[in-house]
Amino acid sequence: MHYGVWTHCIIKSYALCDRRTKMVSQTVELLKNEIPLEQELIVLAEDTVSGLVLVDIINGFCSVGAGNLAPREPNRQISGMINESEKLARLFCEKKLPVLAFLDSHHPNKPEDPYPPHCITGTDESNLVPALRWLENETNVTIRRKDCFDGYLGSIEEDGTNVFADWVKKNKIKTLVVVGVCTDICVLDFVCSTMSAKNRGFLKPLENVVVYSHGCATFDIPLEVARNTKGALAHPQEFMHHVGLYMAKERGARIANQVLFGAAQKV
User: Fold this and answer.
1) CB count, 10 Å around CB of 22?
2) In this predicted model, what pLDDT tens digit does every residue of 28-43 receive, in sequence order?
3) Which residues form the Isochorismatase-like domain (predicted)?
4) d(CA 82, CA 87)
């Protein structure tokens, strides 16, 4: 599908937003009742190492008008995700705990179907959003540019080593907290690969993978827009966010609606 179609699709989705809000909300609640998602308070132990992974919180996916896949106007779920991720990142940095940020960065001659060109290497689309740009100057932060959905696969070097796996082992991370965008695409793909690698013993001493729900977000393409746009797929934001979290839990991740540090109720 040509990138102009995607852009037109996203613009139309915002034009229809007000008219459909009530109907969509009712539908989403009905579907959530069919696949309920239990979330929990996660208290990270102070006496073990926890690591934070930020997935693609970059301009090309989050900053209004920044690119073909960026929101066309302010989006509450995306704004909330950025705010919560920044709070968590500052907390991890204050404690000098390991943080890894994946940045989607593509070569112009290597398309990522079915999506239009986005987050091209060397452009501001592939850089952290302004609220998180300060991470580049933190000594406990590792930046990893990737050219695919899955950060685990995107961490594989030509010699077969894996930057993410080495980061976990070097820092002796026992609990991994994941935030970012999109909940049901890059976040989910990374979590699925990480859980599989952990279960096979490739990520020792990692024990827990936690997805912080308020620190994740996805995009929105209504059904009525998709039906009238060649090649488009319907993608209701609230429901697909819920599905992404649900699928992550099915893979063995823990879904948190709050993340704190403390001695009691350890993960």
Assistant:
1) 9
2) 788 888 999 999 999 9
3) 51-220
4) 9
